[in-house]
Design a protein that fits this description.
Blueprint lengths: L12 H17 L12 H22 L3 H17 L6
Length: 89
């Protein structure tokens, strides 16, 4: 996804933060360009998967799960999240 191709900006602190926020907004919304239907942004799904993978890694390390179990859990979650349009938390 385009969201994963982050651009690093190094300028003055305030201007850098503003440009970084704008860049992040554009990157998160690239999957919606030219589409009229309302769907979950690809960047948001990627962010949610990253957060879930961090939790899976933490759980796996604390429960001493085999690496194969850890990878399979990530595959299952990623597949589910890609198919699911809305997730209510």
């Amino acid at each position: 996804a385009a969201y994963n191709m982050r651009t690093q900006i190094s300028k003055g602190a305030q201007e850098s933060a503003r440009l970084a926020n704008l860049s992040g907004y554009v990157e998160m919304n690239l999957s919606q360009v030219g589409k009229d239907d309302k769907r979950t942004r690809v960047g948001y799904k990627d962010l949610m998967k990253k957060q879930a993978f961090d939790v899976i890694d933490h759980l796996s390390a604390n429960c001493d799960f085999h690496g194969t179990v850890n990878e399979r859990a990530k595959e299952l979650f990623a597949g589910w999240r890609n198919m699911k349009e809305h997730v209510h938390q």
